[in-house]
Design brief:
The complex is a heterodimer of chains A (about 325) and B (about 325). With about 325 residues, chain A is mostly helical. Chain A contains 15 helices and two strands. Chain A folds into two domains: about 60 residues, no CATH class; about 230 residues, MetI-like (MetI-like fold), CATH 1.10.3720.10. Chain B has about 325 residues and is mainly alpha-helical. Chain B has a domain of about 210 residues: Orthogonal Bundle (MetI-like fold). The chains are: A mainly alpha (about 325), B mainly alpha (about 325). At the A-B interface, helix 2, helix 5, helix 6, helix 7 and helix 8 of A face helix 1, helix 2, helix 4, helix 5 and helix 6 of B.
């Protein structure tokens, strides 16, 4: 780096006097200062955003969670009361349980996606068409999808039960039935997310060197063996990525809950953690308590992703 | 931190392969992201036929609800309840689509969604790419610490921040305006910064140094050299970001109370609650179709670019 600022002087070959060196250093320092200033200016917007809309709200959250507060009036400091209330709040545990229950959809979705990706990686007519059709739900807005599925789950006139009736199944009244409301939401989420995971898996599957399969074939490996010993380990980074992003997104599930079951579902069977936080904060104006729950949610997400990361590191597979 | 790095590494590795020919086979002709490689092992036509059937059934399952949405939007109010259900509406009621623009807030919803999505993504992309340029190519003591600090933002879910942010914005009187949806996100998108920074690491430092010696200003280096280089990466991130903002629902319902100020997703969700009691399902479905169509058109037109540029972004990481 020093090179750039000193070698372009015409004194390169001569012995430098003290004064020259000093001048050069000064000039270099000035140039660096200029570069520092520009670099700082370029980084400033996101850094300002980080301080104003992340650091400050976080600090405020931590304080607010220790208060009794309706969002408008005075904040009364009550220590850890919100947290003890939370531990004793059956609605909190129910919402947490519901949120975790929805995660069942993640392995189901990934298994189907991988199967689809394997099928689509073969010489099949209309592959591009299939890829597009499977991807359309991904780009569609969740609000519209939720509205559509709410209607499709209608017990009497909905598409789902009409189709089930064709094969002689008398479908439940999905969203009104405490036993079926959560599975209904899971089915919809799998349907919506399938295209995205399939796309990532497809890219990964096609990136697996053919030579590995050819060598395995020469050794007489079966198709299943090739899958478990080559394909599955080779797509493991994608699996890990999808699991982590799906868990993070799943822990924040809100839109479809609020649209399809605006009151938290029959016997509160669909209310998610974020929905409960939102409900407490903006409908019941329990801002202090809601903030405490939101912080707990943030910490839970952090813990889960940290565990995921550790597991992944333990069996990291690399061919680099 | 390492989590993000690792996640991104996984993602990039996942996508990386897509843009590259097999590593183990250097002679392989370069092929497109999702094109088949030649010389693969023979496949059984019978198996492929079965798979085609399964994929077709799957495609029907994927498309049927959306087709049903369009079909319902064109039915009469009573036709919605006919048994057995009719897939082809009889008669077609195009008038519903006139009604949806005349009688509801769909039009202002589209306008508001466009204001938010365009301003956030256009200005935010400029801020993000400037920051990525500085983080990757300029000298500043502690810039890596700054980068890690920004990355830490990805670990904090929005629901954790929404209450204090709401209180902040309500104090300065921004509730029921579009500003709280724009200002916090317009200053830069960490995911975009992350990807662009990685992408820029493939650009030799000497290029930038040479431009500096030539006396080019930093803004000029960014504009004439860096921006054209990272355009493919920007394009992919831009489209993904635009879709995310367009489809957002949680932030808008927190801030927007007046119907004429709501974004499209909130408008259709509120219509869903309001018109369901009036049994006006065609109207609700028409509004939903309208909210999906713009993004769908963009996707279908740029499908190849979107998918390939996502893969390209990854391969440069």
């Amino acid at each position: 780096m020093e090179m750039a600022t000193t070698t372009d002087t015409d004194q390169v070959n001569s012995t430098w006097t003290k004064a020259d060196q000093k001048a050069a250093r000064k000039r270099s320092a000035a140039l660096h200062r200029k570069e520092h200033a520009w670099a700082a200016a370029f980084m400033a917007p996101p850094v300002i955003g980080w301080v104003a809309f992340l650091l400050f709200p976080m600090a405020f959250s931590i304080y607010a969670s220790l208060t009794n507060w309706n969002g408008i009036g005075n904040m009364t400091f009550i220590g850890f009361d919100n947290y003890t209330r939370l531990v004793q709040d059956p609605y909190f545990w129910k919402a947490l349980w519901n949120t975790i229950f929805y995660m069942i959809g993640i392995p189901i979705g990934l298994a189907i996606s991988l199967a689809l990706a394997l099928a689509l990686s073969r010489k099949i007519r209309g592959r591009t068409f299939f890829r597009t059709v499977y991807y359309i739900p991904v780009i569609s807005s969740l609000a519209a999808i939720a509205i559509l599925w709410q209607w499709a789950y209608n017990g009497d006139f909905g598409l789902v039960n009409q189709v089930l009736a064709l094969v002689g199944i008398d479908g439940p009244n999905w969203l009104q039935d405490p036993n079926w409301a959560k599975p209904a939401l899971i089915i919809m989420a799998v349907w919506k997310g399938l295209g995205y995971s399939t796309l990532l898996y497809l890219a990964a599957v096609q990136a697996v060197p053919r030579s590995l399969y050819e060598a395995a074939s020469l050794d007489g490996a079966s198709g299943w063996k090739k899958f478990t010993k080559i394909t599955w380990p080779m797509v493991q980074p994608v699996t890990f990525f999808l699991v982590v992003t799906n868990i993070i997104a799943g822990s924040m599930i809100f839109t479809e809950i609020n649209i399809m079951t605006p009151t938290g579902g029959p016997s509160w069977s669909t209310a998610s953690l974020v929905w409960y936080v939102w409900n407490q904060a903006f409908r019941n104006l329990q801002m202090g308590y809601a903030t405490a729950m939101a912080l707990v949610l943030g910490i839970l997400v952090l813990i889960v992703t940290a565990i995921q990361f550790r597991i992944n590191r333990a069996n990291d597979f690399s061919i680099d | 931190m390492s989590l993000n790095a690792n996640t991104a590494r996984a993602a990039s590795r996942a996508l990386a392969g897509a843009g590259e020919p097999d590593r183990g086979n250097k002679q392989a002709p370069k092929v497109g992201v999702f094109q088949r490689r030649k010389g693969a092992t023979q496949e059984s036509p019978a198996v492929n036929a079965v798979l085609t059937v399964i994929l077709s059934i799957g495609a029907i399952v994927m498309a049927a609800p959306l087709a049903w949405m369009v079909s319902t939007s064109l039915k009469t109010k009573e036709g919605v309840y006919s048994l057995p259900p009719e897939w082809i509406p009889d008669p077609f009621v195009w008038e519903t689509y006139v009604r949806v623009f005349d009688d509801t807030y769909v039009l202002s919803g589209i306008k508001n969604s466009l204001i938010v999505a365009v301003s956030v993504t256009v200005v935010g992309t400029i801020f993000s790419s400037l920051a990525a340029f500085a983080l990757a190519k300029l000298r500043l003591p502690g810039k890596n610490a700054i980068f890690l600090m920004l990355l830490s933002g990805m670990m904090v879910p929005f629901p954790t921040l929404m209450i204090p942010q709401f209180v902040m914005f309500s104090r300065i009187g921004w509730v029921d305006t579009l500003l709280p949806l724009i200002v916090p996100v317009i200053l830069g998108n960490v995911i975009m910064i992350f990807f662009l920074r990685q992408y820029l690491h493939n650009v030799p430092d000497s290029l930038v140094e040479a431009a500096k010696i030539d006396g080019a200003s930093y803004l000029k280096i960014f504009w004439t050299m860096i921006l054209p280089l990272i355009r493919p990466a920007i394009a992919a991130q831009f489209i993904l970001w635009f879709m995310a903002v367009w489809n957002d629902y949680l932030a808008p319902i927190i801030y927007l109370n007046s119907p004429e100020k709501q974004t499209l997703q909130v408008v259709i969700a509120n219509m869903n609650a309001q018109y369901a009691t009036q049994q006006d399902y065609p109207l609700i479905m028409a509004a939903s179709v309208i909210s999906v169509i713009p993004i769908l058109i963009v996707f279908l037109i740029f499908q190849r670019q979107i998918i390939e540029s996502i893969a390209l972004t990854g391969s440069k990481t």
